[in-house]
Amino acid sequence: MTTKVLDNGAERFVTAGGVTITRERHDRPYEGAIDAYVDGLNSRRGAVFSSNYEYPGRYTRW
User: Residue 2 has what pLDDT?
Assistant: First the structure.
């Protein structure tokens, strides 16, 4: 899989199944950062993936 960096800094690649993925990065303040993206799903196609999964010892060094 080859990743192409676009002029605006976004990255685009095509999966083995032929699906084109474009990834953009945006710096946002932490508080309420996801709200605008979730609200935008009412008028644009897309998805928001988020995880806050924690488990004991996750960051423990051996």
Answer: 79
Cα gap 51→58, rounded to integer Å:
14
Each domain of the chain, given as residue ranges in start order, spans 4-40
Q: What backbone torsions phi and psi does residue 23 show, to the nearest 5 degrees?
A: -115, 130
> In 3-state terms, what secondary structure has residue 20?
strand
Residue range 7-51, pLDDT digits in tens: 888 999 999 899 999 998 877 788 887 888 888 888 988 888 776
**Can you tell me whether residue 23 is helix, strand or coil?**
strand
Please give the Cα distance from 4 to 22 (Å, whole number). 9
SS3 label, residue 26 = coil
- 5 sits in which H/E element: strand 4-5
